[in-house]
Structures are given as C-alpha cells and as structure tokens.
Specification:
The chain is of the alpha/beta class and 198 residues long. The protein has one domain (2-197): Class I glutamine amidotransferase (GATase) domain (Rossmann fold, 3-Layer(aba) Sandwich), CATH 3.40.50. The chain is built from six helices and 13 strands. It has helices at 12-21, 32-37, 49-58, 62-71, 81-85, 185-197, and strands at residues 2-5, 26-29, 40-43, 76-79, 89-90, 104-107, 117-122, 124-125, 138-143, 145-146, 155-160, 164-171, 174-177. The strands form three sheets. Strands 2-1-3-4-13-12-11-8 form an eight-stranded mixed beta sheet. The chain has a three-stranded mixed beta sheet with strand order 5-6-10, with no helix packed on it. It is globular, with a radius of gyration of 15 Å. The mean pLDDT is 96.
Length: 198
C-alpha cells in the first residue's frame, strides 16, 4: 500500500484518484500507524519551499517517516514541491530541506522564458525502473524552480525549457519528479505503476 502523505499542501485527492485508476492500493493519511504499516510513500506538494518545510517539520509523523525511508529503505516519491523538499535547499527559501538527495534547487533565470514553466514537455530518461514501459514520455509541468543537472549522479531524467534541467532525481530508494504524474494521463499512470512495482 502507498501512503500519500497529507501535510496540507498538494493535490492529494488527484494523486489518489490516479492511483485508483492504476489499480494501486493507496490511502491519504497523516496517521503514524498507517505510515508505519505502508510499503511506500508519496510526498506531494504545491506552494513555497519554506512553507512546505515548516509544515513537514511540524508534522507529528516526520520521525517515523525518516525511520521508514532512511533505515528500512521503503521507497518514497516526491512530486513537484515534494521533490524539492527532498533536497538540501532551494533558492526559493531560507530553510534547509530534508537533505535526502544531495541537490540544491535553483530558479529559472533566463529572462526570455515565461516563468513558471507550465504545460506538457517531453523528457529524456536514464537508467531507472521508474521509467519502465514509457516510450517517448510526456508529462505536465508547473514550476519556477528545478534541479540543476550538475549533480548527474542523482539526476535520472531531464527536460528542456530554455536549458536542460533535472526533472527526476533519485538517491537509492528516494525518488523525486518535478512534473505532475497525476495530471499526465497514460504516462502518469504508468509511472505510478512503476513506482508501485519497485
């Protein structure tokens, strides 16, 4: 079962609906007992980095989540802001991130670009089972900040918006995607199935 972590930020119902379409057992929760019993986690997120970190740090389940992810090595998937919160920090805020992936998030700085980057975009995938059975995948994006590709060891997929940027990252059992699988139709369903099958 996948536990969708509810801390007040993120499209938890949309993610749950997409997992239902993928026939993946899931629950939206902030209950410690359910979090401890789950096999995998999704950390959603929409909003600012500092607000996300404040809410995560105030959550009464963060200690248990850390144990399950870092010690028991249960997979976790961060989506959009949820991905960024898994990293060390972001140019958007002043608070430290969870630092589970050794990346620092930066902002699109090309003045010729319309920011946020919004809409469908193709991605180039690397070697990761997260992208099994995805041919020429396209995903839906809404973001102004991104993972730079200078930390190639943790970047498992890239997209281009004026420049190449990391749109999916990984550190062992910890995954993050900048795009929204829950808004990405058949590509999102397949990616969520792949995450469930890890």
């Amino acid at each position: 079962m996948i536990a969708i972590l509810d801390y007040g930020l993120g499209n938890v119902k949309s993610i749950s609906n997409m997992l239902d379409k993928a026939k993946v057992e899931n629950v939206v929760t902030s209950d410690v007992l359910i979090i401890n019993s789950a096999d995998k986690y999704i950390l959603p997120g929409v909003g600012s980095f500092d607000e996300g970190m404040r809410r995560i740090c105030e959550a009464h389940w963060l200690t248990e989540l850390k144990y399950n992810v870092l010690e028991l090595k249960k997979p976790i998937l961060g989506i959009c802001l949820g991905m960024q919160l898994l990293t060390k920090k972001s140019e958007e805020g002043s608070l430290d991130g969870l630092s589970w992936i050794d990346i620092e998030i930066v902002k699109f700085k090309n003045s010729d670009l319309k920011v946020p980057h919004m809409g469908w975009n193709t991605i180039k995938t690397g070697e990761s089972s997260l992208f099994d059975n995805l041919d020429n995948p396209r995903f839906y994006f809404v973001h102004s900040f991104y993972a730079p590709i200078n930390s190639k060891k943790n970047v498992i997929a890239t997209a281009n918006y004026g420049e190449d940027f990391g749109c999916a990252i990984q550190n062992e059992n910890i995954f993050g995607v900048q795009f929204h699988p829950e808004k990405s139709h058949k590509f999102g369903i397949q990616l969520l199935k792949n995450f469930n099958n890890l």
